[in-house]
C-alpha cells in the first residue's frame, strides 16, 4: 500500500506544469513547461537560502547588540566603581576623624598609653607612618 502511494506521487511529480506569462502591453506571451519536481526543488532551495540569510544576518545582529550591551555594562561598572571608591574614601576619613576624636578624649582624661595607641593607628591609617611610630 505504501509503495503504491509512493509510486503514484513519483508519477505525478514528473508531470509537467505549464506556466504562461502574458504581458498586458501587447508583447508576445511566454510559455514554460516545467516538471513539478523542478518547481518543488526551486521552492525548497529558495526557502533554504532565505533561512540561511536570516541566520547569518541574525548572527551579526546579535554580535552588535552584545557589543553595545557590553559597552553599557562597562560604563555602569565604572560609575559604580567610582562611587565605591568615593564611599571608601569617606569611610576612611570618618574612621580617622573618629580615632582622632577618641584620642583627644583620652588625652583629656590624661591616659597616655591609650592616646599613643589610638593616635598611632589613626596616623598610620592616614598614611603618616613616621608619626605613627
Describe this structure in words.
The chain contains four helices and two strands, in the order αββααα. By secondary structure, the protein is mainly α. A two-stranded antiparallel ribbon has the order 1-2. The chain starts with a helix and ends with a helix. The mean pLDDT is 78.
In short:
78% of the residues lie in helices and 9% in strands. With 133 residues, the protein is mostly helical.
Question: What's the structural blueprint in terms of helices and strands?
Answer:
Blueprint: H1 2-13, E1 16-21, E2 30-35, H2 36-108, H3 112-126, H4 129-132
Antiparallel strand pairs: 1-2
Helix pairs in contact: 2-3
Quantity of strands, as a count: 2
Q: Based on Cα principal axes, name the global outline.
A: rod-shaped
Which strand-content bin applies to the residues? 5-15%
Query: Helix content range of the residues, please?
Result: over 70%
This entry's quaternary arrangement is single chain
List keywords for this structure.
133 residues, single chain, mainly alpha, 4 helices, 2 strands
